[in-house]
């Protein structure tokens, strides 16, 4: 079918399964054409066929390994030159298990490449393209471990804290351009990321594990409400507001010409 009343193209990384695949379906239902990016081309092709049939949209599949700089640069160039792209979902990511002292550093380097470097390069390209067009949306998938790093693997938690910080700074940079920015901070979500990372999630209490569909629907609701930071399972948004307010209370005292009295 031909695309009807398209909202533009949504570029979704990590689109072959889990959160990315569900976002793709939800965005298709909202009238977006799709550019689906992942390593598993057969899975992407199968998803694309279903989405075309169900929603009458254009779906393009792009096989890419976003731990490889060459593949990232190709996608970055696509973002910079394809004016039809109106939404970037920076979803591709990987977790890790174990202590930093015992870590496989090659594995952690791939994690940093995917969770930090790739996210940054794609967000930069999208920010340039979207601000020039005066419209667009950048969604970065972070994690609640950005707020509670003591509870999880050090490198993964730090990578997601980076995504949160990047999103907050990027939003400030893009004020007045017409570009919307959102960071999503899911808790434990039922996806394949756990087994792919060698983590046994079976011991996690059921009341802590959200279905991916519910997580994505909450996140899109947060986007519709104009939230910069969306924490899908947080009942009281005032708690996040208080967290942000406490940061601003400290702000005037974070850089002074004299050390605090307690250090003298």
Automatic annotation (TrEMBL):
Q: Which domain of life is it from?
A: Bacteria
InterPro entries (alphabetical)? NAD(P)-bd_dom_sf (IPR036291), SDR_fam (IPR002347)
Keyword Oxidoreductase among record annotations: yes
> Keywords for this entry?
Oxidoreductase
**Protein family according to the UniProt entry:** Belongs to the short-chain dehydrogenases/reductases (SDR) family.
Protein name per the record: SDR family oxidoreductase
Give the organism, scientific name.
Pseudomonas fungipugnans
> What lineage does the source organism belong to?
Bacteria, Pseudomonadati, Pseudomonadota, Gammaproteobacteria, Pseudomonadales
